[in-house]
Amino acid sequence: MPTSTKMNTEEAESTELRQFREQWKAEVRRRREEQQVQHDTTAEPSQHKASSPHAKSHTSPRAAPPETEAKPSATSSGASHKALHTSHGQSPLSGSIARAVDIYRSAVQHEQESDLDEALRLYRQAFRLNPDVDRAYFKEEQRLQQLGRSTVGMGHRKTASASRSEGTEGKDSRTTQPAEAKESVHTHGILSKVLESFPEVLTFEPEDDREGLPINIIPAELLLYILRNLDTTTLERFATVSRKARVLSLDPSIWRDFVYLAYKPPQIPEAVTMQTIVDEYDSNYRQTYIEHPRLRLDGVYIAVCHYVRRGLGENAWVNVSHLITYHRYLRFFPDGQVLSLLANEEHQPALVIPMLKPSLRMKGFYIGDWRLEGSGVLITNLVERHPHTTPAHPAYQVHVPQPTRYNFQMTLTLRSKPLGRWNKLDLVSYESVNIEDGEVVPVPLKHERPFWFSKVKSWQGY
């Protein structure tokens, strides 16, 4: 009894297998007939080249695998990208990485269609083929975007919403934004050669391609508005971030504001217009700001001077010498007022600078006028403002103007080390002027040193 049951089971299985085989053969014959009919209708001479996407199905004697027909959306998800490949040349990807990128692109398409199970399966398959398929996909998408944009024209700028719908998919739409064409900026020297080496299309690139970069979403106009609220030091630091940042920082509107804020009388002669000076630098505002002399108003110029004074010792065989240090300070104001202070080593710069205001009253403090002519700084009408101590109250100081017969004047030369800093003043002459008859007497300069600029954060520069 068990033997007959086993034989019946085997006969039933062989019958089912035979029926399945016959059905499969019939299905294969039907598909071959359909492919032959399709080949006959598309094999005309004028359309022979256009039918290249089906070349594999024409030449292959076997039918396509069932899995291929079961997923028509996955195979057709990159149609627009394939069109770009055929119209702009072949993709630089090849071999397994190209197949992995195609599978990754299909996964992105399924993810956008909320088919998460199929998307997850395709993602896993793509990463098994190549662990770096996501980076390769992002780079390929950027290349396709640039090729598609070149057909439209470099002068045409796409909006952020249009670029996301045309050239980016899935995760890439959050990390890669459309790059903008490099605008022509007016430069000279080494900088112009550096800019020539930049590509035509510039964008901010993240350190990790898988991470987003929100700054790419901000339009260039809004970035320029933000940059116009920075100071020159911060602006130049931003320019070192990337090539696009360098190009944005060269916008003439930014440097035009700096030029017209900085160069006003007494920085320039009243008879000379700022436009005349800019024309001397070929209308380059950034070059004007860097190369045209200007006094820094956001800090103080300090000269540290030394001299040696002989002392007295108890032992005649020992020579005693004292090194004396004193400081000269110069602070310039936009209205043409200048403060000059001569202080000994008891008054260190950290204590003097916060007090260096027109209301200061101490020995060696002078107030005068300044003007800039080319690279020469002329300081005139330096009058000492020192406190007067009344006899009744020796400790109480009253600010009473003292009559004086002399005032002083200084001539200095403005220099810049490095270029654009304007941080050095060389003292050329120091003279006393008799107010009554105008006689000018030079004051000997023995131990004077150049003034170097020191920035003070709390002081305004314009």
Describe this structure in words.
- 41% of the residues lie in helices and 19% in strands.
- The chain is of the alpha+beta class.
- Helix 15 crosses helix 17.
- It has an eight-stranded antiparallel β-barrel with strand order 3-4-5-6-7-10-11-13. Strands 1-2 form a two-stranded antiparallel ribbon.
Can you lay out the helices and strands and say which pair or pack?
Blueprint: H1 2-42, H2 55-59, H3 66-70, H4 72-75, H5 79-88, H6 96-112, H7 116-129, H8 133-152, H9 160-167, H10 172-175, E1 180-181, H11 189-196, E2 201-202, H12 220-227, H13 232-239, H14 243-249, H15 252-262, H16 274-280, H17 285-291, E3 299-311, E4 320-332, E5 337-344, H18 349-352, E6 365-373, E7 376-384, E8 388-389, E9 397-398, E10 406-415, E11 424-434, E12 440-442, E13 451-455
Helix pairs in contact: 6-7, 6-8, 13-14, 15-17
Helix content: 40-55%
Biggest sheet statistics: 8 strands, antiparallel, barrel
- Poorly predicted segments: 44-89, 152-179, 389-399
Assess the beta-strand content as a share of residues.
15-25%
Query: Distance N terminus to C terminus?
Result: 111 Å
Mean pLDDT: 78
Main structural class: alpha+beta
Radius of gyration: 40 Å
Helical element count? 18
Specify the overall morphology.
Answer: elongated
- Major sheet: order of its strands? 3-4-5-6-7-10-11-13
The overall strand count is 13
